[in-house]
Amino acid sequence: MVALPRFVVQLHDATTLHFDFRLQSGEVLRSWAVPKGPSLDPGVRRLAVPVEDHTLSAGEFEGVHEGQRRGSGAVIIWDEGTAEIVRDEPGHVSFILHGRKLSGGFALTRTGAQRWILIKVRDEDARPGSDIVTERPASVRSGRTWQEVRGP
């Protein structure tokens, strides 16, 4: 039996607080920075800026990056799980997530050279009007917020 690709969403307090959405493709994590984080509301479109691919092990990190090439600051694993890739072609990826916070259909669509949008598909997992980022701010691994990981 072939394992499904994984996904991870890390909340990173770097120069600006943002979410790193990572989707496994072979032996790397394709990555997008999503400033406002994902949404379960199909009416909400989130800016997603592609960044360089990351190693699979990068998706395991929770803690504080200090003086790292990719940016300093606290990182939590905000959500993680598996992903079923429905369509993957240049400029568009659609997938079904099986995470602890995010589930159901999502899509990433290119809208410019360095600009994509992340949207939630209208399905039984959609929650119009919700704000999952505010409702569930803590790590799915440690239960801590990024502020708690950062420390005093």
Explain what this protein looks like in three dimensions:
The chain has an 8-stranded antiparallel β-barrel with strand order 1-2-3-4-9-8-7-6. It has 152 residues and is mainly β. The model has no long low-confidence stretch (mean pLDDT 92). The protein is built from 2 helices and 9 strands. The protein has helices spanning 132-135, 146-150; strands at 6-13, 17-25, 28-34, 45-55, 63-65, 73-89, 92-99, 103-112, 115-120. It is 6% helix and 52% strand.
Brief overview:
By secondary structure, the protein is mainly beta.
Fill in the keyword field for this structure.
single chain, 152 residues, mainly beta, eight-stranded antiparallel β-barrel, 2 helices, 9 strands, 52% strand, globular
Q: Number of helix segments?
A: 2
Total number of β-strand segments? Answer: 9
Give the helix proportion (percent range): under 10%
Largest sheet: 8 strands, antiparallel, barrel
Question: What structural category arises from helix and sheet content?
Answer: mainly beta
Instruction: Provide the β-strand percentage band.
Output: over 45%
Low-confidence spans: none
Arrangement of strands in the largest sheet: 1-2-3-4-9-8-7-6
Radius of gyration: 15 Å
Mean pLDDT figure: 92
